[in-house]
Amino acid sequence: METPGGMALAKRFRLTRRLHMGMTEDGFRRLRRFAAEADLQEGEALSFLFENFDSVTDNETLVHRLRLFQAELPDRKR
Questions:
Q1: Rounded CA separation 34/12 (Å)
Q2: Per-domain residue ranges for the chain?
Q3: What is the spatial distance between Cα 20 and Cα 18, in angstroms, rounded to a whole number?
């Protein structure tokens, strides 16, 4: 959408979804560090990451790291 002068309007940022989730201490510390570095709140940081997921991840690295995580998961749950 554009203004009459041809400038694009900013997409409204509303955090409309709430979720209860569990996260590892390491994951939460990394989220907090990323949010602080980006001058965002944790929810804003998560929204940014998932709205831009394809452009901020390398698919090959993601698949490799996901397989490693899944392989370690049973031991980490004990």
A1: 22
A2: 25-76
A3: 7
